[in-house]
Amino acid sequence: MLGMKRILFVDDDPPVLEGLRLRLRPFETAWDMTFAGTGGQALAEFQREPYDVIVSDIRMPGVQGARLLRTVSERWPEAVRIALSGVTNPQETLHLVPIAHQFLSKPCEPSLLEATIEHCLKVSELLPERRLRALVGRVRRLFPQRRAYTNLQSLLSDDQATVHQVAELIASDTVMAAKILQMVHSAFFRRARRIASIEQAVAYLGLDAVRSVVLSAEVFSQWPDKPVASSLDLDRLQRHASAVANVAHALTAEAPVADDARLAGLLHDIGYWVLAHESPREIERAHACALQKGIPIYEAERETIGASHAEIGAYLLGIWGLPYSVAEAVAHHHAPEGVRQAGLDALSALVIAHALEGAGDSVAFRSTLQSDSRVGAEYLESLSTSLSWDEAIRRASAANNCGARNA
Question: Distance between CA atoms of 191 and 204, rounded to whole angstroms?
Answer without folding.
Answer: 10
